[in-house]
Amino acid sequence: MDFISTREALRAHYKPASEPSLRKELRVLDGHCRNFIAKSPFVLIGSSDGNGNADVTPKGDRPGFVAVLDDITLAIPDRPGNNRLDTLENIIANPAVGLLFLIPGMNETLRVNGEARITLDQDLRETLAVDGKAPQSVIVVKARAVYMHCAKAFLRSDLWAPEKWPPRAEMPTLGEILKDQLALAESAEQTDRWLDNAYRESMW
Questions:
Q1: Rounded distance, CA 37 to CA 33, Å?
Q2: Domain that residue 172 falls in
Q3: Does residue 191 share a domain with residue 125?
Q4: What does pTM read for this prediction?
Q5: Is there a single domain that holds both residue 76 and residue 145?
Q6: Is 33 helix (H, G, I), strand (E, B) or coil?
Q7: Spatial distance between the Cα atoms of 19 and 140, rounded to a whole number of angstroms
Q8: Which InterPro entries match (predicted)?
Q9: What are the tens digits of pLDDT across the range 53-73?
Q10: Domain count, the chain
């Protein structure tokens, strides 16, 4: 198998990017971007430690959970999780991040590329609190490139079409997966019950 190793060889294989696809890139969060973020309950954060180790982390919460602080600045609350801190440690090593905002049922997405930092600022954390519970930290992103992404990936995948979804029963539960992968002494049912309790008690 041969691999492409130069930018020139890659570009030679593809048609040139269309003029509108290049012009659509913004440097600020305009009204449409702000409206999209205000309605989005889900964002994917791509990061890297700068040594070739990459990570994509999902963040989900009530619509509008990501705050727009000004024309180029976003604040993403970090709620309780598994404390691996993959994204946060990557940001400390390499601030470059890519964000992908989704709205359920909408085939277009919003992309934001920029630089991130982590803050424990108490006022900001309290502003982003849910049910009186402040996030453990906040990822503050300075946008460098902002643009809407077309619908082709979602149309090809039928992501929002329930009739195309595989039956959930065809997939094992997380408890079953973890029992096999980690050789857990507990039964899959016990692990699933533990996960259900953890979800109920530590969402925020």
A1: 6
A2: 166-201
A3: no
A4: 0.95
A5: yes
A6: helix
A7: 31
A8: Pyridox_Oxase_FMN-dep, Pyridox_Oxase_N, Split_barrel_FMN-bd
A9: 999 999 999 999 999 999 999
A10: 2
